[in-house]
Amino acid sequence: MGDMALLVFSFCMQAAIGMMFFMTLSHQLYKGKAFKGAAVTAAGLSIVGVLASLAHLGQPLHALNSLLNLGSSWLSREVLFSGLFMGVAVAYALVQWFKADASALSAGLRWIGSGVGLIAVFSMGKLYTTASVPVWQGINTFVDFYATTIAVGALLFLVLSLKELQDVDKKVFGLAVLAAVILQAAVAIPYAISLGLGGSAAQASAEILSGMSVMISLKWILVLGGAVVLLWPTLQKSIKAEGQSSSLIYASLGALICGQFIGRYVFYAGMVASTIGLT
Amino acid sequence: MAQYGFYFDMTACGGCKTCQIACNDRNDLKPGVLFRKVKGFEGGKFPMPWIYYLSISCNHCQEPKCVEGCPTQAMHKLDNGIVAHDKEKCIGCRYCTWSCPYGHPQFIEETGRVNKCDMCKDLVEEGENPACVDSCTMRAIHWGDLEELRAIYGAEAVSDLPVLPNSSKTTPSVLIKPKSVALLKDFMLKED
Hints:
The complex is a heterodimer of chains A (279) and B (192).
Chain A: H1 4-29, H2 36-56, H3 74-98, H4 103-129, H5 139-160, H6 162-165, H7 171-195, H8 200-210, H9 213-235, H10 244-269
Helix pairs in contact in A: 1-2, 1-4, 1-5, 2-3, 3-4, 4-5, 5-7, 5-10, 7-9, 9-10
Chain B: E1 4-9, H1 18-27, E2 37-43, E3 50-56, H2 65-69, E4 75-77, E5 83-85, H3 95-99, E6 106-108, E7 113-115, H4 121-125, H5 131-135, E8 141-145, H6 146-153, E9 174-177, E10 188-189
Parallel strand pairs in B: 1-9
Antiparallel strand pairs in B: 1-8, 2-3, 2-10, 4-5, 6-7
């Protein structure tokens, strides 16, 4: 699929942004802890995302030209905020490893990274919803992107910080992931039903999606199942690294990543742009 | 600001595709790339079947979504209203191919860039007509200042057809004299 580079870009970038968000939240909730592994992973994912976005371009060496239309292009803005996020995430990871005592700098980078990252996700949503592709238009795209950010980001952060978080109250992670995916499903279902009532391009997308019903069902089983499985271990007071609870968290992470990745594949596969005779 | 546009007389067009070929020749386009397309639409049943042809290129919209969304400003509007493309700025992100509701800009694999109709601006600047206009054997395609075209042909011309996206999206600079069957919503795209 030609859009695989965009799939990797959007998925990795949203996962990294979600990790940065939960890193910021965790520093507020649990004082005196360091999350070095999560910081490096977030930086790595953002680098992979940006490299993947370059692979999509016909002229990757001229990629900086994409910043020339910030006044009206949401793609320009997405590139700007994604690039800024990557820079902040890398700087934050370096500070965590080489200047761990610079707590004010760390806090500043975390907050800036979270803010810039969430704006980057909004820019991604805007650029897809303003394209002449009916299946992408509407609130569903925003909810899908933010749900992926929250669910995958929270789980990756939790798994990479299990040691640091083993004796603290973690139910915020379980509840955040569950709320995100329930909202994602609640918006997606009426949206899918309404798609078939749209114009011919929307109906063409609906036809493609109905042919992928097995894949879409699998997505929802994995996403909703993963979120439910996560709830029990995050309600426990303490988690041991090799215990049953941590196994459930790993299983939940696997299910959520697979489910959301399938969902993103479907997002691109269902794309039918408006054209002459197909409006 | 002036706004150049196209006028197409569907009632005169027989679908010969000479305009399409002239455009390909003028722009040295490879097989599979078309800046001007002639599409046939058919419908009805015996004894009342019908068919019509629509010759269409970039509509050089007054509010072009390709220009608004292009991250590099490679897509830009000239003072005469032509939507032009600067290949030096283009990075081949293809966003314009998603933005344009008419599906006009095309990604060219060989160059790694997008390209599109520029209304033969080099010819226009020399006082000549675009290649499609001069090549049409039925004189079905005209070109000029949109307001002048509207003054001449406006009474029976439209910018909206059931096969086209709603003109309120981008305000296309195209006027079409439709066949009556082109206003029917029950159509099928004719196979080439």
